[in-house]
């Protein structure tokens, strides 16, 4: 019976080959994928998440730094590297056209397993790290308070 570490390794290998069918087969039909960009539920939505990622970064690869030695959930620390050469769907529905920029994103993920498949996959990474490497700028909707206003409060 596969454990979470084995399934995560299978998922990482499929990810690095951009083998979408194998990525999906690692997940149960009703699996939940939680990322900083949102939640994907079931094969169709999870496939859509990875399709968008592979389209935007066709050379993206994952280097695993460390996997916590536990059966379930498996926790992995990793580095994603790739070049943004295709459209990339941002949270909120905007599409970022190719920038040609190389990114290196550090992150971690957890996977829980049930019936020999991933049932819960949570991915954590710093979105600001990604967007700044793609040339994005931090823009505030409102002006931050002045120092005088801080001193008053």
UniProtKB/TrEMBL annotation:
GO-annotated biological processes: polyketide metabolic process
Gene3D superfamilies, sorted: 3.10.450.50
InterPro entries membership: Cyclase_SnoaL-like, NTF2-like_dom_sf
A Pfam family assignment: SnoaL
Organism, scientific name: Microbispora hainanensis
Protein name from the UniProt record: Ester cyclase
